[in-house]
């Protein structure tokens, strides 16, 4: 029987935070997000999609690797690569 800590890896936690945060923001700020062609809603759907991809990758990595330390290392590298891509190619630098 697997323990809870083996399910809670960084990528799965980040995915759930992104999905839940986007949904809460979507419900609280619906009027502001849907104003002027609704591009804020499109952005929230994009964040929910990123969270879903993170959850899917986390579950696939869990199926492929059984070693918890290796799984966490792989997920942290993926998170760092994704964050670097977003920072360097977002047009802010």
TrEMBL record:
The keyword Membrane applies. It comes from Roseivirga ehrenbergii (strain DSM 102268 / JCM 13514 / KCTC 12282 / NCIMB 14502 / KMM 6017). Keywords: Membrane, Transmembrane, Transmembrane helix. This is Uncharacterized protein. The chain crosses the membrane at residues 7-28, 40-60, 72-91.
């Amino acid at each position: 029987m697997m323990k809870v800590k083996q399910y809670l890896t960084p990528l799965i936690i980040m995915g759930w935070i992104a999905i839940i945060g986007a949904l809460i923001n979507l419900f609280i700020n619906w009027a502001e997000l849907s104003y002027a062609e609704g591009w804020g809603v499109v952005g929230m759907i994009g964040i929910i999609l990123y969270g879903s991809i993170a959850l899917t990758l986390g579950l696939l990595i869990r199926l492929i690797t059984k070693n918890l330390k290796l799984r966490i290392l792989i997920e942290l590298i993926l998170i760092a690569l994704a964050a670097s891509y977003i920072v360097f190619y977002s047009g802010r630098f």
